[in-house]
Amino acid sequence: MNWLAHLHLGGNEPEQLLGSLYGDFVKGALNGRFSPGIEAGIALHRAIDQLTDTHPLFAVSRARFPGEQRRVAGILLDLFFDHCLARDWSQYSAEPLPRFTARVYRLLRQAELPARLRVIAPRMAAQDWLGSYRDFAVLERALEDMARRLSRPELFRGAFLALERLYPKLSADFAEVYPQLQAFAARQANQPASAPACTKSSSGCG
User: Fold this and answer.
1) Whole-Å CA distances, 95 to 12, 74, 92, 102, 104
2) Whether the Cβ atoms of residue 117 and residue 36 lie closer than 8 Å to each other
3) What is the pLDDT of residue 148?
4) Cys-Cys link to 86, which of 33, 52, 133, 187 (CB 3.0-4.6 A)?
5) Residues ≥6 apart with Cβ < 8 Å to 128
6) How confident is the model at residue 191 (pLDDT cuts 50, 70, 90)?
7) Whole-Å CA distances, 21 to 40, 57, 69, 185
8) Residue 48's closest CA among 192, 175, 187?
9) Distance CA 156, CA 13 (A)
């Protein structure tokens, strides 16, 4: 899942929100590098990434993409499912999305952030990366930016058109799987757990 989903699944307290984002920017064992609340958020982020890597419904969604695009299908789903969450936010949260994202951006301005997140956070807030995904067209620009940063940009050729074509099916996939992720996150939050190693090879581990 991408940042908006991780933030929503990770909990509402400031340390939970920070940990939900840090999971993409902090690698390796934690062992007291951060506060217990932030480390619990990182652990939950990693557990969610591990679940989505192996969940059968995510496998079905990835298989919907043609040919070479399946190699980046995990990244495409991360972006598209954040779009679905932003689009349907009121179904999953009583707090309006603009209020939620403003709270996250304010927290990022106040916190001591990992180096890579410290560089990204001002642009994230200024351009409203979290809320802007409500607009499906924004994904096209996000994919173009991502392709320019990768060694094989051709893997993203036609990706936005594929998302357009698969829009109804992927939306239905999201509606089926996201409540399961919510239930999983709630169970994880209620039990102590150490953070698993960061193994996700796409966008989830930073």
Assistant:
1) 11, 28, 9, 11, 13
2) no
3) 85
4) 133
5) 101
6) low
7) 12, 24, 26, 15
8) 187
9) 36
